[in-house]
Amino acid sequence: MSDWRYRLSEHRGTLLALAFFILMFAIYASNHPAGFTANVVQTAANKGALLALVAMAQTFVVLTAGIDLSVGMVFVLTNCLASWIVVGSPAMAGLGVVGVLLTGLLCGAINGAIVIYGRLQPIVTTIATGAVYFGIALALRPVPGGDVNSDLADAFTGRVLGVIPASLVALAAVVVVIWLPYRRSVIGRAAYAVGSSELAAYMSGVPVQAAKFFAYVMSGLIASMGGLFLTFITASGEASAANGGSYTLFSIAAVVLGGVSLFGGSGSAIGAIFGALMFRTIGDLMFVFDFDPLWQPLFQGVVLLAAVCLGSVRLFQIRNRLDLFE
Amino acid sequence: MEPAAIPLFRMEGVSKRYGGVKALEKADLTVEAGKIHAILGENGAGKSTLIKVMSGVVEPNEGRMLLDGREVKFAAPAAANQAGIVCIFQELSLIPDLSVADNISISNPPKRFGLIDRRAQRRIAEEALAKAGAEDLHPLTPVKDLPLSRRQMVEIAKALARNPRVLILDEATSALTAADVAKVFAVLKRLRAEGLALLYISHRMHEIAELADQCTVFRNGRNVASYRAGEKSDNEVVELMIGREYSHVFPAKPPLAPSDRPPMLEVRNLSWSDRLKDISLGVRAGEVVGLGGLDGQGQRELLLALFGVLRGVSGEILVDGAPASVSSPSAAKARKIGMALIPEDRKTEGLMLPMSVGVNLSFAALDRISSRGVIDRARERQLIDEMIELLAIRTDGVDIPVGSLSGGNQQKVVIAKWLMVKPRIILLNDPTRGIDVGTKAEIYQLLRKLAATGAAIVFYSTDYDELIGCCDRVLVLYDGAVKRVLVGDEITERALISSALNISTPGEGADMASAMSA
Amino acid sequence: MTINGGALWRKVDPAVATAFGCIILLLFLGSLYSSSFLSPEYLLQQLKVASFLGVIATGMMMVILLGQIDLSVPWVVAVGGMMSTAATGWGPTGEALAIPFGVLCGVALGLANGFGVAYLRIPSMIITLAVNAVAQGLMVVHTGGFSPQDASSAAMRVLATGHTLFGLPNALLVWAAVGGATVFLLSRTTFGRAIYGIGNRERAAYLSGVRTQRVVLFTFAIAGGLSAFGGILLAGYASKAAQAMGDAYLLPSIAAVVLGGASILGGRGSYIGTVAGVILITLLQSILSVIQMEEAGRQIIYGVVIIAMLLLYGRERRAR
């Protein structure tokens, strides 16, 4: 078998997600009343980028066979924080951006520290820390409000070269600067190893704890990028529990749709991005086809259900039932 | 005789305890460069703890280790690897979702600009695979797509890529096909010539006879004998391993009374995937039939197929003359069929370790002691007490977690659990692995007693002595088919080995008639 | 003698003891703020409010014992509330059957969860999420996007707000009945044993001849029914259902089970622990609102308390 066959097989989940997304977006754009214009793409991209960033954050943790249920709350917290500090002169705003990103990093580090050094299970830990992060967000913004440096906001939500949405460029930049190097790095591969088989990873001398900790830190960082971007879009901060909860749950859905295994060890953040974009496009598709908005949530739910059930089709090839149990 | 050079590696007075169990007790070991040193011992003798200590997986409670005459301590496997001590485990250290190349360079990958250099990694993998004799493996294959024997070769390549000074092989050939075993032996002999020190853990006498220069026997966590290969006879070695004459360990095998009844268990043309090929056999009530052959020839799959665990099994199974549809373990357990399976790994398949001894004991028989779903607690307690007494299970009461029992007693709990459902057919998957000698003897006696009460017993074991000592007939499997059937006095170690390795001698061959019945 | 890690009692499990200790501590701290904290009226009121969470947490506990999780609680609770109030509006037969109908809707959703987990081997986290989304979609269609207007039946209101036996709130009696049935199920039936076995080691349970897939299916069905029943009680309490009425119950129900000493990995846990966890969380939330702590502070304290308690007794063993 030649090399490219192996590479293809390795990235199967991501490629499928990409294919589905292109298909769905093509249907969307061709049926949009305004057609396939830059404006249409820009609006879709801005909304999609939000979930894509949160899904990317979730991917880091899921790869290590963990889960981060605080990701939506970090998203909300950094949004509220940004609406306070990413304001004023360019220098001030720049510092504000750094502050927001550092906060995300800190949130991730706290999650990581409790899970790894406190030896608590990720699911309960991140539920609890999520509540704490939300509380802080609420303290920052009891009512929606605030502002953001408009130059920065316009730059990130506008268009580059007149056609390409800046949000996609930014997303691509995050992938190129953060994800691709991570994947090829020792610690990134260690994360895959840990998710695939923590015992084997330990026996092989892989830095298990460092890999997990780093994954949580990265999750917090990327989630804060999402929060920052939300501030750019809405120019305000809002501490909405419903929003935070939705983003957390949708990030899990996006990750699964993007071909990342919830058991850890396989998948890619790029797939998660397409999974997120797919998920968003479902809503947009329904708008375009004049679906009664009343039926949208149901449709979204059914699509999600069908997608996860399809993933288990390979079950029918299992010949030894013991393989069903770990 | 040459003046003794400083040995490459020495272990002095090393002890390791797990709770109250002493896995290693003041163990000593001397390993020399350019030699293959075999470690023998029963399961539970301390061999695996020995290697875990040597390779940094666990820390000893006392004693010291010397490398090149200097004391060393290993905080983690990585440290041991750095020092040149590399261990080849049985498949435990490969990452399933990563490729062969990734796995080979998992702990010390080549880097370029801080990131993993994939091309260099690929080259390292190709070299290591060639060194291990597995050039045909593509480096980008995900390990999870490889069968067990190929994974073992990757494990070996991975160890060789680290340029070890001391190479430890822990039953490394157990999953290999005969051809692969030959390749590995060639590799090991070449490494020996290159000056490596090799530690070879196995209980297969014929392998040790071929490879070893030096042998050490462990028993109950201690080094009881160290000698040059060939200095002791097989019998002497076995006695060192078990600590007493072994001829008394097995109960007598009474001849089977002739009967008109159909076999209790009959299998016709059983096939499954590519692992079981057209197997036919018959086991009469009161008979103990053994499954022999090298590991991985389909013995486990056969037992699983009989017990209803496998899907897509073709062929017929008949119980007490009537066709039986065994679709799942719960169907196999049902009174109509009455099968029991003592599974391979008691810790993950036979017991729920954190749960109490009592709950584990009654777990399979719950539907027999309950009416409409409600458990009859008094009857449960009664049965539990009966079983503990019948099997002489040593435990501090029924409420303690079964995980705190010794290996032998844990296995007794597994067996007792199944005896509670009064099975007619008992399947055992390597039941005495990792168990102390005393309990093994008790289990052999128990099997014979059960056979005497009319059960049909099918017994897979990797231990030739067990097959010789316990079984009325042995079916040797090779590549999923019954290669040869040995009856009564025909069951000898030599016959078992030669048929396991698929070496046929004139006049032998699978005799269908003797496969079906004695 | 207790044969197993008994469903009701576990020889003074340190987790349960800590939980009850914290309850006493909270009551003590509260009484420092105001002496009415220790009054029977207040305590009974707390127990009544706790009953709603208690019923829902019971279902969650069973699922967690299996080693799974049920994230469909928010909208199954809403389905229970909305479907039972809807049935009430369908004439006298509808009103009489409102409660069973609501519960059955929950059971149906639970069966979907259980089927996905047991037969399709989909991780429970994701299938329950998907079922939650579908349930939400169904309710949005049902209510037309508006707040549900149907009123609860008289029976629902009596169950949730009435007082009968010795002046004890009915809701508490309902919880006690549900709890009693659960304890019986878990400790005295083969089904209950199977749950603990599967949560401990599904492989071994399967090889012991237990029909593990059925057990998982029915457990999720029961959990769905209990979540819906919780929604019915809530609708009875408020006299009608409300959009997103179940959202506030997901995380507390998981936290209550875990704080009560159950392992999130499955196979370990006793019902009394869950009871302690439920009361603890209810008290905590109540005290925080009485001292008029802002929502922000409440959330922070809520999270910190859970982490602190888990660090006390919820840690896994060391690797080496």
Characterization of the model:
The complex is a heterotrimer of chains A (326), B (518) and C (320). Chain A contains 14 helices and 2 strands; from the N terminus they run H-H-H-H-H-H-H-E-E-H-H-H-H-H-H-H. With 326 residues, chain A is mainly alpha-helical. Chain A has a two-stranded antiparallel sheet with strand order 1-2. In chain A, strand 1 (159-160) and strand 2 (164-165) form a beta hairpin. The mean pLDDT of chain A is 89. Chain B is an alpha/beta fold. In chain B, the strands form 6 sheets. Chain B has a 6-stranded mixed β-sheet, with helices on both faces. In chain B, strands 18-21-22-15-23-24 form a 6-stranded mixed β-sheet, sandwiched between helices. In chain B, a hairpin with a 2-residue loop joins strand 19 and strand 20. The N and C termini of chain B lie far apart (55 Å). In chain B, 50% of the residues are buried. In chain C, helix 2 packs across helix 12 (271-290), helix 5 (98-118) packs antiparallel against helix 6 (124-143) and helix 9 packs antiparallel against helix 10 (212-238). Chain C starts with 13 loop residues before the first helix and ends in a 7-residue tail after the last helix. Classes of the chains: A mainly alpha (326), B alpha/beta (518), C mainly alpha (320). Chains in contact: A-B, A-C, B-C. The interface between A and C is large, with 56 and 57 residues.
Give the topology.
The complex is a heterotrimer of chains A (326), B (518) and C (320).
Chain A: H1 3-10, H2 12-31, H3 38-63, H4 71-85, H5 90-116, H6 122-140, H7 150-157, E1 159-160, E2 164-165, H8 166-184, H9 186-196, H10 198-203, H11 208-234, H12 241-257, H13 269-288, H14 296-310
Antiparallel strand pairs in A: 1-2
Chain B: E1 9-18, E2 21-31, E3 36-41, H1 47-54, E4 62-67, E5 70-72, H2 77-82, E6 85-88, H3 100-104, E7 111-112, E8 115-116, H4 118-131, H5 148-161, E9 166-170, H6 178-193, E10 197-201, H7 205-211, E11 214-219, E12 222-228, H8 234-242, E13 265-272, E14 276-283, E15 288-292, H9 299-306, E16 314-319, E17 322-323, H10 329-333, E18 339-342, H11 346-350, H12 357-362, E19 370-371, E20 374-375, H13 377-391, H14 407-419, E21 425-429, H15 437-452, E22 456-460, H16 464-470, E23 473-478, E24 481-487, H17 493-500, H18 512-516
Parallel strand pairs in B: 3-10, 3-11, 6-9, 9-10, 15-22, 15-23, 18-21, 21-22
Antiparallel strand pairs in B: 1-2, 1-4, 4-5, 7-8, 11-12, 13-14, 13-16, 16-17, 19-20, 23-24
Helix pairs in contact in B: 4-5, 13-14
Chain C: H1 14-33, H2 40-65, H3 73-88, H4 91-96, H5 98-118, H6 124-143, H7 154-161, H8 170-188, H9 190-207, H10 212-238, H11 250-259, H12 271-290, H13 295-313
